[in-house]
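Hi V.,

Quick status before I head out on leave. The structure for the redesign project is tokenized and pasted below; the design run finished overnight.
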């Protein structure tokens, strides 16, 4: 999969940008706060994912502007596809998203079309951050392999919103407690499917992460990932995902229902899962050095790309935001060897810090505009 054309205007500080990307390497060069990361983010949102910065949609539009547009053409193994995302600050219907000329109700359809993986400095939060950071990483990566996973996550989130609202009503005495069972049956079904899909993906990525981390550490260290379900034991996943599994999840919800009612929130299920990451058998979150944490996060993203490459006919598009310049030559070459067959967009303040074999189109950006293409 390659992006063949990009056009962006009014996204944060970006103005009047249009270019035909190189099918291999696109090196976006500029000093800090000139718009390098904004350019990556403007394309990233066309994948149907939320901003990798965690930004709110209303912040996409330039501070002093009223409208933003981001458009790309991409070529996959079958055909050319077109995606456009427009947002107007003051309109009653602010978002206007089109896929191949057809207006979309949301971003869900984009997720099936534009597959990309972003490497950003904040990736260390996958290791050092909250369990939610690790769950979100696994969920998004697994969803790229099977877009139906997104449907189950969205259904589960909607059910949890309803369940938690009902818990507060029961706590206040405005609803009957027996109504909770209706939502628990639905939550048990979706939660079980999510648990099994998470376990399957963690098993895949654990094997690849172990191999890659051993290479990047010179064979001296081992990286291990373990999925720790709040409901199921590891041996439970050897059994099929069926009615018995749904019932096990349902019982777990019922066990904590009294406590849930007293507190007004849900304390069992996939929203309490954890992905344990260990280096040489020790928690990377609690005891990993800065170098180990950076290497582990990098390896997890590279493993995500490798898994996708094995499953799909199309390689994902890679975004590297100020990542390569922070790596020594050995680690740069390690990354280069894995992504060399993919289209890459990378940002850097100094292209001379990159490996000499990383050659392609250079886009020099200043004050939100492309000043030079070479």
């Amino acid at each position: 999969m390659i992006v063949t054309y990009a056009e962006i205007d009014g996204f944060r500080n970006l103005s009047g940008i249009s270019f035909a990307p190189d099918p291999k390497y696109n090196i976006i060069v500029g000093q800090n706060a000139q718009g390098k990361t904004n350019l990556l983010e403007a394309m990233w949102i066309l994948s149907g994912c939320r901003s990798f910065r965690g930004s709110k949609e209303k912040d996409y539009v330039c501070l002093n502007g009223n409208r933003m547009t981001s458009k790309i053409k991409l070529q996959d193994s079958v055909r050319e596809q077109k995606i456009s995302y427009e947002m107007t600050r003051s309109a009653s219907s602010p978002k206007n998203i089109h896929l191949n000329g057809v207006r979309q109700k949301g971003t869900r359809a984009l997720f099936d079309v534009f597959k990309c993986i972003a490497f950003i400095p904040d990736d260390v939060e996958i290791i050092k951050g909250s369990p939610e950071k690790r769950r979100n990483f696994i969920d998004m990566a697994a969803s790229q392999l099977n877009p139906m996973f997104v449907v189950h996550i969205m259904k589960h989130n909607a059910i949890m919103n309803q369940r938690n609202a009902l818990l507060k009503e029961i706590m206040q005495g405005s609803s009957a407690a027996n109504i909770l069972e209706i939502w628990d049956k639905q939550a048990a079904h979706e939660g079980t499917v999510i648990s099994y899909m998470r376990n399957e993906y963690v098993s895949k990525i654990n094997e690849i992460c172990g191999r890659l981390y051993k290479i990047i550490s010179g064979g001296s260290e081992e990286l291990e990932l373990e999925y720790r379900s709040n409901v199921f034991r590891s041996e439970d996943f050897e059994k099929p995902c069926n009615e018995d599994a749904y019932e096990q999840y349902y019982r777990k919800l019922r066990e904590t229902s009294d406590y849930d009612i007293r507190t007004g929130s849900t304390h069992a299920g996939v929203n309490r899962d954890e992905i344990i990451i260990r280096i040489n058998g020790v928690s990377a979150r609690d005891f990993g050095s800065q170098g180990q944490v950076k290497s582990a996060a990098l390896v997890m993203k590279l493993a995500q790309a490798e898994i996708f490459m094995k499953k799909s006919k199309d390689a994902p598009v890679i975004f590297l935001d100020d990542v390569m310049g922070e790596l020594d030559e050995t680690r740069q070459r390690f990354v280069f060897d894995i992504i060399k067959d993919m289209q890459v967009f990378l940002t850097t303040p100094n292209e001379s810090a990159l490996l000499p074999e990383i050659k392609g189109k250079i886009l020099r950006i200043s004050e939100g505009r492309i000043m030079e293409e070479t």
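Above is the designed sequence. The radius of gyration is 22 Å.

G. will cover questions while I'm gone.

Best,
W.
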